[in-house]
Amino acid sequence: GAVGTILAEAAINISSLELSRLSERGDAMMFVSVDDPLGASVLAQLRGVDGIVDVRVVELPAR
After folding, report:
1. β-pairing verdict for 14-21 and 28-34
2. How confident is the model over 6-49, as pLDDT tens digits?
3. Do residues 52 and 46 lie in contact, with contact meaning Cβ atoms separated by under 8 Å?
4. For the chain, what are the domain ranges?
5. Separation between Cα atoms, residue 10 and residue 38, nearest integer Å
6. What is the DSSP string of the chain?
7. Which of 7, 42, 61, 62 could bond 12 through an S-S bridge, CB–CB 3.0 to 4.6 Å?
């Protein structure tokens, strides 16, 4: 899909991916864990994908 293609073209590896629906046949959420930080241009590309409503970055501290 578009998300994987954008990340692959930026040489960003997806370490995990989770999909979840808010309600049956309703909107869905996608949680993507990546190995490297996302730059501003990658975020802009993701935000420009048709059907994506919002893109948020959550940075968790290393263990």
Report:
1. antiparallel
2. 999 999 999 999 999 989 999 999 999 999 999 999 999 999 99
3. yes
4. 2-47
5. 9
6. -HHHHHHHHTT--EEEEEEEESSTTS-EEEEEEESSPPPHHHHHHHHTSTT-------PPPP-
7. 7
Residue 14: Cβ within 10 Å count:
13
- The CATH code belonging to domain 2-47 is 3.30.70.260
The pair of three-digit structure tokens given for residue 18, joined into one six-digit string: 């989770």
Find the length of the chain. Answer: 63
Cα four-point dihedral sign 23, 27, 12, 61: negative
49-58 burial: b if 16+ Cβ within 10 Å, else e? eeeeeebeee
pTM of the model as a whole: 0.87
Which residue's structure tokens are 């993701």? 46
